[in-house]
Amino acid sequence: MKIAVLGGDGFCGWPTALHLSDQGHEIHIIDNLSRRWIDTELGVQSLTPMDSIQERCRIWKQESGRTLNFHLLDLANEYQRLRAWLEAHRPDAIIHFAEQRAAPYSMKSDRHKVYTVNNNVNATHNLLTAMVETGIDAHLVHLGTMGVYGYSSVGAPIPEGYLDIEIDTPTGKKEQEILYPTRPGSVYHMTKSLDQILFQFYAQNDGLRITDLHQGIVWGTHTEQTRRHEQLINRFDYDGDYGTVLNRFLIQAAIGYPLTVHGTGGQTRAFIHLQDSVRCIELALKDAPQSGDRVKIFNQMTETHRVRDLAELVAKMTGAEIAWLPNPRKEAAENDLVVENRQFLALGLNPTTLQEGLLDEVVEVARKYAHRIDRKRVPAVSAWTRDIAKRVETDPEGKRLKSAS
Ligand SMILES: NC(=O)c1ccc[n+]([C@@H]2O[C@H](COP(=O)([O-])OP(=O)(O)OC[C@H]3O[C@@H](n4cnc5c(N)ncnc54)[C@H](O)[C@@H]3O)[C@@H](O)[C@H]2O)c1
């Protein structure tokens, strides 16, 4: 297949591009490299040394003999170029990772909220309308998030996208199927909720074939392909805005930084290893909906864990200490989470669950590149409201007074 990987320079997009290229697909990476600019804005860098996208593609060609094509294009701001690209290349499938994906970054300031909404909603809508306009019959696979549902305990498993309900009408009860209600907990999650409505409209109005993958928090860093050469290494975010919880605990342990648990650590979240994430995308591509079908929604996760349990596991494994900090987010202190993921299991996914071997691998990577870590960038400082901002802890190591010089 000819596959466009939008956002293919990112943490999930790069290993997906390699995985699918390895299987013989013709891969076109489209990316505006905005994520690299955000690193510059935040004064932080990937824990792992990432080469330029062109250099990464060159090394992949050298190692595998396969070509990765790169196109510099901004989906949100260059509609005409996007449309012309689709017309010229007519991909069979499009995988859409190209959004601003950090909840804390989306809550930093009004400017970051505006950027996240403009970027994410325009990118998705530009893509959908360009697909209709060019008349291509590509299967669109989008990366959404489990976070759209919020994290209040409902007591029933979160289904894969749809909910059967009964409504009272003057002639009695009627059954209906609706999108499972969203309850986004940040501006970033809100954009993913809006994406869902855009998909519903274009599937129903124009017969676009769309799969929306509600992904859990991705952990790990390597996949089979990124291990093949030092310069194929994946991005790894450790900072308070982009670093995700389990990966952050692992790097904190590796550099002797306390594990930063927010609140009671009673938040339960869904997780998936990076290797399973790329495999799920492969499975979703093989199971495309037909034109006229409703949007196909998968819960792309393999297990759920409570944050304090993860911290305790990593502390036990590495001897790290835990710092209990005020929570910069506005969210339930404790929640349960039960999620259905039968569709991927039925398609043959064999989940990689939290094993010490894979956890150790991340700690090893973090130790190797520990010299690249700026400890000042480790705490999460973006607060969800002005009131919460007053209690955010920016110095979990308690070094402020000691380093007065
Ligand atoms: N990383 C996770 O744990 C996780 C969990 C659930 C869902 N997701 C979803 O998966 C997708 C990829 O996440 P990631 O961790 O790889 O993020 P990432 O920030 O590493 O990658 C996103 C890529 O998209 C590009 N991009 C952003 N806006 C663009 C635009 N307007 N035009 C062109 N390119 C643009 C960026 O430059 C970057 O390379 C996101 O949509 C995210 O919401 C990620």
Describe the protein.
- By secondary structure, the chain is an alpha/beta fold.
- The protein has a domain at 2-237 and 274-300 and 338-352: Rossmann fold, CATH 3.40.50.
- It is built from 13 helices and 14 strands.
- A seven-stranded parallel β-sheet has the order 3-2-1-4-5-8-12, with helices on both faces. The protein has a three-stranded mixed β-sheet with strand order 9-11-13.
- Helix 1 packs across helix 9 (274-286) and helix 4 packs parallel to helix 6 (110-134).
- The protein is globular, with a radius of gyration of 21 Å.
- Mean pLDDT is 95; it is low at 401-405.
- Bound molecules: nicotinamide-adenine-dinucleotide (NAD).
In brief, what are we looking at here?
Helix content is 37%, strand content 19%.
Number of helices: 13
Radius of gyration (CA) equals: 21 Å
Report the CATH C-level class of the domain at 2-237 and 274-300 and 338-352: Alpha Beta
Helix content class: 25-40%
**Alpha-beta content class:** alpha/beta
CATH topology of the domain at 2-237 and 274-300 and 338-352: Rossmann fold
Stretches where pLDDT is under 50 for at least 5 consecutive residues are: 401-405
Measured between the Cα atoms of the first and last residue, the distance is 59 Å
- Shape assignment: globular
Taking the sheet with the most strands, its summary is:
7 strands, parallel
The secondary-structure element order is EHEHHEHEHHEEEHEEHEEHEEHEHHH
What is the average per-residue confidence, as pLDDT, rounded to a whole number? 95
- Total count of strands: 14
**Within the largest sheet, what's the order of strands?**
3-2-1-4-5-8-12
Label the CATH architecture of the domain at 2-237 and 274-300 and 338-352.
3-Layer(aba) Sandwich
Which cofactors or ions or other ligands sit in this model? nicotinamide-adenine-dinucleotide
